[in-house]
Amino acid sequence: MTADAIRPGDDPRRILSEVRGLAARVRRDQRLTWVALLVLGAVTLLAVPFDAIFMQLQCQADGCTFARRGMLYYWPPALLIAYATIAWGYLRAARARGVGGRVLPYAITGAVTAVVFTAAYVAAALYFPANPPFEGGPVPFWWIVLDRLIAPWGLIGLALLVLAAVERNGPLLLFTGGYLALVLLVLPTTEGMSMMGANLRLSMAVPQLIIGIVLLAGAFGFAKARRP
């Protein structure tokens, strides 16, 4: 018994188009972009009270000095748990649909970002109190961008770039580009704001709230677009 893969009357171009369409459908079925954004958005919003509660403030008449210890207590384990949860969701969905999952590079990148953030934060906490940068002058904008890039929300954007590449996901790439532009270039800084007590905590909370809301909005948009 034999079976021809291609019947004599079949159009090779039509068959190739169908194969490409099937491959694209498999790639779409592998994507759980909304799950990743939902988890990361929730983790970002939960960080706000930790940052406020564990922020160490020493205020005097001319202003405040502060240390954001809550970030160190919260973000390293939170990032590891978040990426483990996302990887589990992807693998579970892959088994349910019977298609392969390619989330491992993204999960590894997420774990590496947690290590990078922890190392950078500890190094900054040890070095900068004794060697304050740009003392007596304005902080250059490039320094602000670098600081935001190695912060948890910047590292989340870098990991999303890896996910977009793994999934060949153009919409996620566009979303991540806009997200990184927002995080690195648009969000307000604390310069020019009141640096006393509750106002300082509020000025630190606002960017995190904006980032969390953007991630959750992205999750909603990708989940809605996924519906047949």
Question: What would you note in describing this structure?
Answer:
The chain is mostly helical and 228 residues long. It has one domain (32-226). The chain has helices at 12-30, 33-54, 69-97, 104-127, 141-149, 152-167, 170-186, 197-226, and strands at 55-60, 63-68. A two-stranded antiparallel sheet has the order 1-2. Helix 7 runs antiparallel to helix 8. The two termini are 39 Å apart.
List the helices and strands and how they pair.
Blueprint (H helix, E strand, L loop, with lengths): L11 H19 L2 H22 E6 L2 E6 H29 L6 H24 L13 H9 L2 H16 L2 H17 L10 H30 L2
Antiparallel strand pairs: 1-2
Helix pairs in contact: 2-3, 2-8, 3-4, 4-6, 6-7, 7-8
Protein name: Integral membrane protein
Keywords: Membrane, Transmembrane, Transmembrane helix
Can I get a quick summary?
The chain crosses the membrane at residues 32-54, 74-91, 103-128, 140-165, 172-190, 202-223. With 228 residues, the protein is mainly alpha-helical.
Q: Residue-averaged pLDDT, rounded?
A: 76
| Helix and strand sequence | HHEEHHHHHH
Biggest sheet overview: 2 strands, antiparallel
Calculate the terminal CA-CA distance, rounded to whole Å: 39 Å
**Low-pLDDT residue spans:** 191-196
Q: What structural class do you assign from the helix and strand content?
A: mainly alpha
Q: Name the helicity range.
A: over 70%
Structural domain tally: 1
- What is the strand arrangement across the widest sheet? 1-2
What coarse outline follows from CA principal-axis ratios? elongated
DSSP strand content: 5-15%
Global Rg: 22 Å
Question: What's the total helix number?
Answer: 8
Query: How many beta-strand segments?
Result: 2
